[in-house]
Specification:
This protein has two domains: 224 residues, Rossmann fold; 29 residues, no CATH class. The radius of gyration is 18 Å and the shape is globular. It contains nine helices and seven strands, in the order αβαβαβαβαβαβαααβ. The chain has a seven-stranded parallel beta sheet with strand order 3-2-1-4-5-6-7, with helices on both faces. With 274 residues, the chain is an alpha/beta fold. Bound molecules: nicotinamide-adenine-dinucleotide. Nicotinamide-adenine-dinucleotide (NAD) binds next to α2 and α5.
Length: 274
Amino acid sequence: MSYLEKLFNLDGKVAVLTGGGGVLASEIGGGLAKAGVKIVFLDINEEAAQNAAKEIEKQGGTAIGLKTNVLDMDALKETRQLILDKFGKIDLLLNAAGGNMPGANITPDKTVFDLDIGDLDKVTDLNFKGTVLPSIVFGEVMANQKSGNIINISSMAAMQSITMVLGYSAAKAAVSNFTSWMAMEMSMKFEGSVRVNAIAPGFFVTHQNRAVLLNDDGSLTERSHKVIANTPMGRFGEASELIGAVLYLASDSASFVTGVVLPVDGGFSSFSGV
Ligand SMILES: NC(=O)c1ccc[n+]([C@@H]2O[C@H](COP(=O)([O-])OP(=O)(O)OC[C@H]3O[C@@H](n4cnc5c(N)ncnc54)[C@H](O)[C@@H]3O)[C@@H](O)[C@H]2O)c1
């Protein structure tokens, strides 16, 4: 094994990816599988999770797709048992289930006083609680194993205010905060054997934001033009560009890295806009 292969070696590891039927998690899962990781995709949409797993199997990797709601503690525990029965361990958790709700947005024709409190609850539940609950259920396995890795998905919206997305931004800020809290907890109480980090993707066109970023004919919306103007690299990200960040954080090359939120954003978060 070469020096680089050893540094980033993940061969034989078992990874659980929530929201695994989604665009970003399925792409990241594909990358991990190519590195020899056994993949478990969890999604509330069973068909999407299974399709993502089939794609990996087609390419010779090992993957399964299971229906699991990240907000259902009992379902998560049942799934944990299934995974342990099949693979015997859990090395990596990628908390990728997440998304927005229309009523938790403040569109230009509305003000904050029109906020739909029900949708605010739903969006904070999905993004924040939907990260905390799997971290508890699968993190407990890692704490007992005295090894493991949790990677959360935050967002640019967690770092500075972005028009419209009130609820989603607050929920992702909570994910970033939880990342550092959980990193501290796992390091201080479990001998530093479980690391917790996050990636913060910039703008990637996926199911959840296509309508906001692209017009029906595929051209950029007014909002997209603003995003691109504030992204020094001048483009959206490709889902495959998240794989390297996850491989790095999950591998021993990041053995002293915990509690960080790593932007993968073409420079968006560091740019003044001027
Ligand atoms: N696309 C972007 O530009 C972008 C930027 C920053 C962060 N993110 C975050 O990345 C993550 C993945 O997003 P994506 O763009 O691939 O979205 P996506 O909509 O393609 O995937 C999200 C997946 O989560 C699943 N899901 C929803 N509720 C669930 C639940 N209760 N239990 C289990 N699964 C559930 C959905 O079925 C879907 O398959 C999300 O947390 C999102 O907020 C995306």
